[in-house]
Description:
Layout: H1 4-30, H2 34-52, H3 59-73
Amino acid sequence: MLTPYKRFLQPALMILLGLVGLYFITAIYATGESLLAGVMLVTLAAFIWIYTSPRTYAYRYLFPGIGAALIFEL
C-alpha cells in the first residue's frame, strides 16, 4: 500500500516538470524560434503521455533510444 506522500509525489513531480518545460518552450518561442519550440512541445507532450499512461509502459524503454537515434542521425 502506498503512503499518501508517495501516492502524490509522482504526479506532483510530473506536473512540475511539465510546467518547467512549458516555461522554457515559451521562452524559446518568444525569441523567435517557433520550429524549435514546436518540436520541443511535441517532445514534451509525448514524454508526459508515455511516462504517465499505464497503457504505454513498454514505450518507456523505447522512447529514450528512439530520441537518441533521431538526434544522432540529424
